[in-house]
Amino acid sequence: MHTDITGVILAGGRATRMGGEDKGLISLGGIPLYRHVLERLMPQVNAVIISANRNQAVYQQSGLPVVGDLTADFAGPLAGMLAGLRAAHGDWVAFVPCDVPDLPLTLVEMLWQGKQQALAAYASDGERAHPTLALLHKSLAPQLAEYLARGERKLMLFLKQVAARQVVFNGQAHAFLNLNTPDDCRHWLQEKGIAND
Questions:
Q1: pLDDT-based confidence at residue 74 (cuts at 50, 70, 90)
Q2: Backbone angles phi, psi at 97, to 5 degrees
Q3: What is the pTM of this model?
Q4: What is the pLDDT of residue 42?
Q5: Distance between CA 172 and CA 176 in Å, rounded?
Q6: Which CATH number fits domain 2-192: 3.20.20.70, 3.90.550.10, 3.40.50.1820, 3.40.50.300?
Q7: 159 Cβ partners below 8 Å, 6+ apart?
Q8: Angle ∠(46,25,67) on CA atoms, nearest 5
Q9: Ranges 94-98, 123-127, 149-153: which has the least confidence
C-alpha cells in the first residue's frame, strides 16, 4: 500500500449502454459493481474517494467520501479526475473506473514504478491503452481545469500533453475487461461461477 496515494473510483458516467442505469450500482452476485472494484483497489492505496454524479447518497453508504463533477454536463472521465485531484489529500491520485472488477492487484505499484519522473502514468495491456486506469500528480489539477474549460474532453490527448508514461501490463488483458452492457455482466458472472440475485 502506498501511504501517499489516494484512490478514486470513477462512477460519474451516463452508462448509456447499461440502459442509463447507474453502472457502479449494478448488482453482480448481490454486490454493487463499484464494490468489486473497491475491494481490489483498497489494499493498494491510503484512502479511497468515489466520483459520482448520481445516487451520491447510495455511494455514501460505503462510508467513503463522494465527490461530484465540478461541471454540470457529464464531461466524461476527465471531469471526475479533476474533482478527484482537488478532493485528494495526498500528492498522487490513482484513478480506476467503476466497471473493471478484475483490475490488477499490482496496478498502483506498477504505475508508481513505471511513471519514473513523469507526473502521470496510465495502463496498457500491450494491445490497448486503458487511460482511465491512471496515476496523476495533484499539481496537474490547474492544467486539467484549463483543458476542460477550453471544451476539451479527450483523455488520451490530455495525457499526451502532460507527457504521461504508458505502463504495460503484459498478459493481463482480462484484468482490464470493463463491463459495459448487461451481457458483459452476465458473461462475467458465468465465468466466475456466481449466481446473480
A1: low
A2: -75, 160
A3: 0.92
A4: 96
A5: 7
A6: 3.90.550.10
A7: 120, 122, 131, 134
A8: 50
A9: 149-153
